[in-house]
Write a structure and sequence with these properties.
By secondary structure, the chain is of the alpha+beta class. Helix content is 31%, strand content 23%. InterPro entries: AMMECR1 (IPR023473), AMMECR1_dom_sf (IPR036071), AMMECR1_domain (IPR002733), AMMECR1_N (IPR027485), AmmeMemoSam_A (IPR027623), Uncharacterised_MJ0810 (IPR023472).
Length: 195
């Protein structure tokens, strides 16, 4: 079985910065030629392990989000996950028009590597709020066929735990009080972010 990335500290700053560069090259090549790059040589062992990543594009001038797509569960080598999510963030995020080649230099690219999600056991909504750690935890909320996730970065916009949970319900296509009424499954993960 292919190895998973278990510990985020496995990934050095150097590897992370190289992943950001890889994301930029992948987007550029795709916008120019419609081709998905493939690496002949994989420069780091960790890149061959299965990893889950999110690629976030933001305007350098305004900090506004311009695209964000990712994987929650690792199912392919990390470098392929980053390439694929980078292209998707630039061209397939339904909230935005696709990024143009001219616009690419104006964007900051962030690559977040996710730890494997762990199920959070909780008894009541209060207990849930006590157990989640703002600015540290990424959350996945799951109820029947609905699912949504927020990366830890989202705490910067929604630092209030109750508001965070309500928005997460909405993101999953559920009413904002779903976390109070229905006891959804909650999974927690950490991220390591490079930009």
């Amino acid at each position: 079985m292919e190895e998973l990335i278990i510990d985020l500290n496995q990934i050095s700053e150097e590897e992370g910065k190289a992943l950001v560069e890889l994301a930029r090259i992948a987007i550029e090549e795709y916008l120019k030629s419609g081709k998905i790059i493939d690496l002949k040589e994989i420069p780091y062992e960790n890149w061959k392990k299965k990893g889950a990543s999110f690629v976030t594009l933001e305007r350098k001038d305004t900090g506004q989000l311009r695209g964000c797509i990712g994987s929650i569960i690792p199912f392919r080598p990390l470098y392929q996950d980053v390439i694929s999510n980078a292209i998707a963030a630039a061209t397939k995020d339904p909230r935005f028009v696709p990024v143009s080649l001219e616009e690419l230099p104006l964007l900051n690219i962030k690559v977040s590597i996710l730890s494997f999600p762990q199920k959070l056991e909780y008894s009541t909504p209060e207990d849930l709020l006590n157990k989640i750690k703002p600015f540290e935890d990424g959350l996945i909320l799951k109820l029947n066929n609905n699912q949504g996730t927020f990366l830890p970065d989202v705490w910067e916009d929604l630092p209030d735990k109750k508001e965070f949970m309500s928005h997460l319900c909405l993101k999953a296509g559920l009413p904002p009080d779903c976390w109070l009424k229905y006891h959804p499954d909650i999974f927690i993960y950490k991220t390591k972010v490079f930009s």
